[in-house]
Amino acid sequence: MTPRTSVSARFFMIASLAGALTLTACGNTPEPQAGQSASSTGSASATATPTPTPAYKPADAKGKAENVPIPVLPEAAKANSKEGVEAFAKYWFQALSYAYETGDMAVWSAMTSAECVFCNRIKQGLESAYVKGRWVVGGKMTTPSVEANFKSEALSQQVTIQTIQSQIDYYDADGSVGQPSTPPSNSASGMIAAFESGSWKVKDLGLLR
Fold it and tell me: Which of 31, 58, 100, 109 is deepest in the core (most CB within 10 A)?
């Protein structure tokens, strides 16, 4: 049998088998029962109802913030470049803002070296603000301006960040005012960040005069 004949024969066998299966399937289709329409014999697939996303609720004098969105590290912040360290610096302050709003410092702390003295002071202040059921209202941070003095040969990079933070109010577990409010601020910060093992980490931070 030539190759051409072999291919044709196989095609004929497959086509015949497909036709037989089609006839068999048609012949075995059950008739609708009395009082039941043909359309009702089909399996009605239940439409899945999407789970609603819990609504974000900022903190107020009555209680803590709820369902605060966790900041997501942008792809740009994973690069060892000027753009990368600038994107990282913005994200670092977003994570700090999240920590002020929730008391959860896990994400922020993972990007912060224990060597950073000023960062440790921030951490201690947040721990005190959220201990024993306490919470804060406000403290959100934005960074309108971020500029890195990037030097590719350097082991660490310097970044200047304009940081705006809203007023912070402190509450004890019983809802009473815990301590005087921290007024809003608009300041310049200097950050030292190093790219280690494929990611950035803050080594030092300070306010610029």
Answer: 100
Q: How far apart are CA 122 and CA 109, in angstroms?
A: 11
99: domain CATH number is 3.10.450.50
How do residues 26-50 score in pLDDT, each as one tens digit?
444 444 454 454 444 444 455 677 7
99: in domain:
yes
Q: How many domains does the chain have?
A: 1
* Per-residue pLDDT tens over the stretch 82-104: 999 999 999 999 999 999 999 99
Region label for 139, one of left (φ > 0), alpha (ψ between -120 and 50) or beta (otherwise)? left
Residue 42 lies in a domain: no
Is there a contact between 85 and 193 (Cβ–Cβ < 8 Å)? yes
CB 123 within 8 Å of CB 105: yes
69, part of any domain: no
**Dihedral (CA of 132, 135, 139, 140) sign:** positive
Identify whether 160 is part of a domain.
Answer: yes
pTM for the model stands at: 0.76
Which strands, in side-by-side order, build the sheet including 177-182? 135-138, 168-171, 177-182
Give me the sheet containing 156-165, strands edge to edge: 141-149, 156-165, 185-196, 199-207
pLDDT at 81: 98
On the question of pLDDT at 176 being above 70, the answer is yes
CA distance 34 to 31: 9
Q: What is the per-residue pLDDT across 61-72, written as a single tens digit (0 to 9) for each?
A: 999 999 999 999
